[in-house]
Amino acid sequence: MIRVLLIDDQPLLRSGFRALLDLEDDIEVVAEAADGQEGLALVKKHLPDVALIDIQMPVVDGIEATRRIAADPALAGVHVVILTNYGLDEYVFDALRAGAAGFLVKDIVPEDFLHAVRVAARGDALLAPSITRKLINRYVAQPLRTGTGAGLEELTNREREAVALVAQGLSNDEIAGRMGISAVTAKTHVNRAMAKLRARDRAQLVVLAYESGLVSPRNI
Predict the structure, then answer these.
(1) Which residue of 41, 159, 181, 186 is 20 to 30 Å from 22, comparing CA positions?
(2) What residue numbers bound the domain in which 184 lies?
(3) Domain named Response regulatory: which ranges (predicted)?
(4) Radius of gyration of the chain (CA)
(5) 219 found inside a domain
(6) Which range, of 20-29, 74-83, 125-134, 149-158, averages the lowest pLDDT?
């Protein structure tokens, strides 16, 4: 059972998302919150698999809530998905850097919304290749952060190759096909790279890959 927590200051939207999720046999909404502060308390109480968090909220906004969840080792199993009205904007980018697994635009069709919740619960990033390109195009205009290369020297050549493919938005199965290896081996390469680079999830691995210079936008 996938346990979901909704954090959004708009009651009508929360009700709509909840009604949709409650129809699914494998998904359970464990709680709702109207602001980030209340949401953080409920995340700690219920430890959901997926926290759907609005970006702009009173008291504590979605970016700060995401940052606090990502920084708490006790919440390592919580996958944050950001809800936004505007698509890929500066707030979404900041949320991904803060540790979000991905984002959803609120006018998403129900089938895609449910699929996204299941993808996030598995620990995969909600970053399609087209979204990754937009993310990187936005990112390359910004200066590199200092200290982002830590751990790169520890990556094997195959792990570097896997990271480059993750940065293109490929799944483990697609990475396996490109590299001529099994999906299990592809997942192992990705997981080891995440551990060495101290990336919380695949979305953060994408950001780190470009921040460090390991992957260039020219490869996308």
Answers:
(1) 41
(2) 144-212
(3) 3-121
(4) 17
(5) no
(6) 125-134
Would you state the pLDDT for residue 181?
95
20: helix, strand or coil: helix
Residue 105, SS3? strand
Q: Residue 208: which CATH number? A: 1.10.10.10
- Encoded amino acid at 211, one letter: E
The verdict on 101 and 15 lying in the same domain is: yes
Query: DSSP string spanning 82-95?
Result: EEESSSS-HHHHHH
Residue found by looking up tokens 């970006």 in the block: 55
Which of 60-64, 96-100, 127-131 is predicted least confidently? Answer: 127-131
131 inside domain? no
Residue that terminates a domain, selected from 126, 154, 172: 126
Q: Which helix (H) or strand (E) holds 64?
A: helix 62-71
User: pLDDT digit string (tens) for 9-63?
Assistant: 999 999 999 999 999 999 999 999 999 999 999 999 999 999 999 988 889 999 9
